[in-house]
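Hi W.,

Here's what went into the run:
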Amino acid sequence: MKITTELVDYVSVLSRLKLPEEEKVKMAGELEQIIGYMDILNRLDTSDIEPMSHTFPVKNVLREDVVEDFGGRAALLSNAPAHDDTAFLVPKTVD
Amino acid sequence: MSLLDYSALELGRLIAADEVSVREATRTALDAIAAANSDNNAFITVLEEDALREAEQVQAKLRAGELSGPLAGVPAAIKDNICTLGVKTTCASKILGDFKPPYQATVMERLQRAGSVNLGKLNMDEFAMGSTTETSFYGPTKNPWNLGHVPGGSSGGAAAAVANRECWYALGSDTGGSIRQPASYCGVTGMKPTYGTVSRYGLIAYASSLDQIGPLARSAEDCAAVLDLIMGKDPRDGTSLEAPCGHLLENLSADLTGKKIGIPVDCFGDGLDPEVRAAVLSVADVLKERGAEIEEFRLPIMEYVVPTYYIIAAAEASSNLSRFDGVKYGWRAENYEDLTDLYNKTRTEGFGNEVKRRILLGTFVLSTGYYDAYYNKALQVKAVIKNAFDDAFSKYDLILMPVAPTTAPKLGESLSNPLQMYLSDIYTVSVNLAGLPGLSMPCGLDKNGLPIGAQLIGPALGEQKVLDAAYAYQQDTNYHQKTPVGGAKE
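Here's what came out:
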């Protein structure tokens, strides 16, 4: 299928990426080549096949919820580009 | 002879007998790394002081009789996508350039408990996305056999460091061949165990349904010893399996009597380098001498494995990498107008091209209107691939095939054509899709003196079978002992 720069724009918005104009054209071409190749899968009739998420038959294992104190708030915050004593800092989102 | 000429297990025995100190071993490795890293760039972070301090602690425990395993005191190096408490873990990305994990990956806890010493963090493709270690933000790693060639990827630093005798073993991760392919290009033994047998807790996720940690080492025997340390159920990884583990080394057997090994003819056709073909097929002759029965069979799925893999891996990557937003950890863009702009600029400037390509591809195959045609279709084909392997393993104990179509390409040849690079993963990705154990071992050198690897694949939880065959092969050949420096060990 044809991958237009408009489609690249749309997928970029969903991905929280913003490519410069000149990269967009290149990316559209590369994605078109890759996605075109993926159409090989249509040679295979899979109409009767269940999609497989897990390779092995794993089942949910339930247990009582137990609260475990991580206790490492300072360590967690120390990796943030902006923080105060208790929270991550981000630009104001609500006026 | 340098201490680095010993295998991990041999060094472990010398340390246990108190003939070599952990500090001496650590010092030797650190010196080798310092001498080589400006040439091959295998390490992103070298833990000079930390490693020597850790060595003293391990030595004290050994003297107190608190450590006894076969690898106690043997230093290791760790791929930089495995979280190490307080030690920079970059995933070879700008976006995680200063990230110091506030916790230890389960595999690191297990290595520490066994008396390992962490020498440093190894270079890789950014977020493990690449087949050459050229997508690293910190520059490419170079193949120690020929510095003009790539070491493979994404665990290229791990393969290069082990091949170049800068450490005795390393931990890598394998999502579509990222342990096995660099092991092949660098002439070392590397194994991806069955999905779910090694905890992924603390492994920075690329494609969670495919990612698995495993060892790169000098031999199948050393790989068995490392797997004994790191395999096992972990309640912190929801996909961790309840399965027997911990006895691979003691159960190693070179007797392959009655073992049936299948050779998929579909993997030896067009596109496979003739020298690689001949070297891999010659492995069958050696295994036959050890008692195995060899038979050719059809595995009629090979044309589907690469597209299926890249759809699923990219889809999972686009979701997993959404956590990198410049808020909770890592790098943040400098100038932004609002929160959305902060996200956009941080991610656009923080991720490299290959990572962005896979995020966009993954977002596309999951998006409304394309989900069924691509993502859902890939999950259906995944079932077909899994069934093809189930059929094969109803007849055979093991499958023998190439690891990669060629030996290591030259630096700079692969990134210009992403699709071409993806296609070179054809022999490794199906193993991840089916969740199987796969091992790469050296089986020859090409006319340019670059290593060739052969791949052994086993049924789910068939680690012992895979390691036994590789161990048997390595009893009768010495390709695994060949080295780019100092000549082969006698």
